[in-house]
Write a structure and sequence with these properties.
mainly alpha
């Protein structure tokens, strides 16, 4: 079961990151994208007050599964884990944090902008 959950979280979390970064680009997913980005920011910054900056429940659950599988030396950042897993590169945690924050801010701005633009011009969706 833990092997399945490990693979599930790897795929789920990776797809979630892609959705956060790109979900604003399609009209049908814009509202959901804004909600997901907002929840991510809430987790990183509000829950992060108690659990540490950048806290993500999905990462926490995935690490618990990996610990059951015997992996004990997990990075605190899922992005760091993803980069190392996919490329083999040992990247700086600080670089990963800055990069992740910059991309989250850009994705949030794009999502907010596209959602507001759609609300101001509802007639555009009819064309």
């Amino acid at each position: 079961m833990y092997v399945f959950l490990n693979e599930f979280f790897f795929v789920f979390h990776s797809l979630l990151i892609i959705f956060i970064l790109c979900g604003w680009a399609w009209k049908k997913t814009r509202r959901l994208n804004l909600i997901v980005i907002s929840l991510t920011a809430f987790s990183w910054f509000i829950l992060g007050i108690w659990y540490g900056y950048g806290y993500c429940p999905s990462t926490d659950w995935h690490w618990q599964v990996r610990m059951k599988l015997g992996y004990m030396d997990m990075p605190s950042s899922y992005i760091e884990f993803l980069v190392e897993s996919l490329t083999g590169w040992n990247v700086s945690r600080k670089l990963v944090d800055v990069f992740a924050l910059a991309l989250l801010v850009l994705a949030f701005a794009a999502s907010l902008l596209t959602n507001v633009r759609n609300r101001k011009r509802p007639w555009r969706s009819l064309i």
